[in-house]
Each structure stands twice: as C-alpha cells, then as structure tokens.
C-alpha cells in the first residue's frame, strides 16, 4: 500500500475539479480528458466496435499469442461474457472512457466483454439507460448465451445499472446472470445516505451539489423513490446472483454500497462488501499507478472467475444428466 500514491491521486483529482457549474458538453469533455490519462492494457486486449441490442457497443477480447484470444482457457468456457456498463452519472462517459476498467477485467480473467453505449441524460432521461442495458442483456441471451456464463459489471452509474438491469431482467422473467460486480455504484437517487454528508470535502471528486445536478438530469422529473432509481431503499433483491461490491472509504457514495450489501444479506444473497481505505470513487481506474487499484482488480477478477467456474460446473452437470436420460 502506498500512502504517497494515494496522496498524489487525491491532489490530482482536487486540482482538476471544476470551480463552478459547467455545461453538459463541458462535463463530457472534461471526463473524456480525465479518463484518457488512465492506463489501458492494450497489449493484453483487442477492441472492436459492434452492436448489442439496438445500441452501439464495444467488444473487448483477451489478446493471445496468435491474436485470436487469450493464451489460456477463459473461465466459464469460450462462451463466457462480461457485460460491462460504464460510469458517468448517467450523463457522460462511454465504453471508451471505461476501457481501463473493462480492459483490465478482460486481461485478468481471459473472458471477453461487451460494453454497450447506452443513451445518456439529459437528452434521454430515466428509464432509457435501464432499457438499453436490459436490451443488451436480452441480446446476449437471444444469441444463445447461457446466463450461467454471463456476469454483469459496472462502475459508478454503471454499477447502479448492473443492479437495476438485474432487477429489470428478473421482473421480465429472464434468467439471471452468474454474478454481479459493482465498483462504487450509484444506487440511491434520493441521496439519503449518511456518507453524502460525512464525506463532503473528503471525497476529492464529488460534491453534493454536483451529484444533485446530474441526478436531476437523469431523473427528468421522475419520482426517485422506486426500485430502478433507488434500489438500496426500495428493491427486493430476492433471487439475485452472488455479488461483489467494491468501494472506496473516501466516497460520498460509500453508503450506497454498504446499504446494498445489507439489503442483499437480508434477501439471502451471497454478497461480499470490499471497502478500501483512503481511496476515491472508482479508484480501480488508476490501475498501474495505484497499488490498491491493481489489488482490487485482482480480487474482482478472482470473484468473476470463481462464479463463472461454478456456472460451468452446473452446465456440465446438466449436460451429463441429459445424456444419461
């Protein structure tokens, strides 16, 4: 662990923070510039544009010595997939801005990923993003994808979308994925968590005012007191697959994660809450410059590999049972 690394990143984030309100385009441009500085494992992955459902998407595959996949067998079999939802407050961000995260998960697991370019607010407020993410998951299933070989993942707003997509899939009668991985998820549109108050000034990225502004763009006048907007308060998580929640202790959104873990436990869900001290929102994006980021991604990859391996065992057992019959 490096206190110097953490201090340097904290100072950089505070220095780059805006001094006043910005337009939506300025917010988007600033985020693209910030994320362009993150380290992407280009030598371990390859990317290509594609479509998933009715939206553009980025396909990220592990790069092997022959350029046609990983040099080791991917966990869960060759059909295993990470469906990754990028962060950005439902207002900014893209599959490309999240590539340091998606790429590192792909490189560490040997599993390919799809990252949909879901519609953003304020042009497309709630429930557009949820609809697009559910459409992406449905498209994987319609292609013949086995839900036991699919995991949902995301950071920040995308972490929230991983949870709400799982809710929407269950409510639509679709089979649920093998696991859900969320990094610093946004899960409470009412902003009622205690950390919104106690971490003000400690969080080097967010202020309550900034969260309220982008949150209002996404709400578009909708009542935040509903499961797809505030799942930590209003969602029934019964039947959810195993979850790993990673969050930094310095975040305004810390309590979104701690309350999700508590709600999942109450619903009988296998859940791991992984809190890292003294780090900011979605600290995993700083892989390569922050030891804690690399270690957290290693833990996340291990979780995904274990869940996909369990799904592969279930599929193999089912196949044996079918052949015996």
What would your notes on this structure say?
- This protein has one domain: Rossmann fold, CATH 3.40.50.
- It has helices at residues 3-16, 24-36, 99-109, 128-142, 157-171, 195-198, 208-219, 231-234, 254-266, 291-324; strands at residues 45-52, 55-62, 81-85, 112-116, 150-155, 179-183, 243-248, 271-276.
- The longest helix has 34 residues, at 291-324.
- The termini are far apart.
- The chain is α/β, with parallel strands linked by helices and 325 residues long.
- Helices cover 42% and strands 15% of the residues.
- The chain has 10 helices and 8 strands.
- The chain has an 8-stranded mixed β-sheet, with helices on both faces.
- The protein is globular, with a radius of gyration of 19 Å.
- Helix 3 crosses helix 10 (291-324).
- Strand 1 and strand 2 form a beta hairpin.
Q: How would you concisely characterize the structure shown here?
A:
This protein has a single domain (3-317), classed as Alpha/Beta hydrolase fold, catalytic domain (Rossmann fold, 3-Layer(aba) Sandwich). Helix content is 42%, strand content 15%. It has 10 helices and 8 strands.
CATH class membership: Alpha Beta
Number of domains: 1
Report the end-to-end length measured between terminal Cα atoms. Answer: 54 Å
Note the total helix count: 10
If strands are numbered along the chain, what order do they take across the biggest sheet? 1-2-4-3-5-6-7-8
Largest pleated sheet? 8 strands, mixed
- Beta fraction of the residues? 15-25%
CATH homologous superfamily annotation: Alpha/Beta hydrolase fold, catalytic domain
Class derived from helix and strand content: alpha/beta
| Uncertain regions spanning at least 5 consecutive residues | 65-73
Estimate percent helicity: 40-55%
DSSP E strands, number: 8
The CATH architecture: 3-Layer(aba) Sandwich
Give the SSE string. Answer: HHEEEHEHEHEHHHEHEH
Nearest-integer average pLDDT: 93
The best one-word shape is globular
Under CATH, the topology is which? Rossmann fold
Any idea what the radius of gyration is? 19 Å
């Amino acid at each position: 662990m490096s206190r110097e690394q953490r201090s340097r990143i904290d100072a950089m984030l505070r220095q780059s923070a805006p001094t006043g309100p910005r337009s939506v385009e300025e917010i988007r441009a600033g985020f693209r510039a910030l994320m362009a500085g993150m380290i992407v494992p280009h030598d371990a992955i390859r990317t290509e544009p594609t479509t998933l459902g009715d939206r553009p998407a980025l396909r990220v595959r592990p790069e092997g010595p022959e350029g046609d996949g990983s040099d080791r067998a991917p966990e869960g079999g060759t059909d295993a997939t990470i469906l990754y939802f990028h962060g950005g407050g439902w207002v900014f961000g893209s599959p490309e801005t999240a590539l340091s995260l998606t790429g590192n998960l792909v490189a560490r697991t040997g599993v390919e990923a799809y990252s949909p370019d879901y519609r953003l607010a304020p042009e497309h407020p709630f429930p557009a993003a949820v609809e697009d993410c559910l459409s992406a998951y449905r498209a994987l299933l319609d292609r013949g994808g086995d839900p036991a070989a699919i995991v949902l993942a995301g950071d920040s707003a995308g972490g929230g979308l991983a949870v709400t997509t799982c809710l929407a899939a269950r409510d639509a009668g679709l089979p649920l994925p093998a696991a859900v991985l969320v990094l610093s998820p946004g899960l409470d549109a009412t902003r009622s968590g205690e950390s919104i108050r106690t971490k003000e000034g400690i969080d080097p990225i967010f202020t309550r005012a900034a969260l309220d502004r982008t949150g209002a763009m996404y709400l578009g006048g909708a009542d935040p007191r509903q499961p797809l907007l505030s799942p930590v308060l209003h969602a029934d998580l019964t039947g959810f697959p195993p979850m790993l929640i990673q969050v930094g202790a310095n975040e305004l959104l810390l309590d979104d994660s701690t309350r999700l873990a508590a709600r999942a436990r109450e619903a009988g869900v296998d859940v791991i809450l992984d809190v890292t001290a003294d780090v900011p929102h979605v600290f995993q994006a700083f892989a390569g410059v922050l030891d804690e980021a690399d270690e957290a991604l290693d833990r996340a990859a291990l979780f995904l590999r274990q869940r996909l391996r369990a799904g592969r065992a279930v599929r193999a057992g089912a196949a044996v049972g079918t052949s015996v019959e």
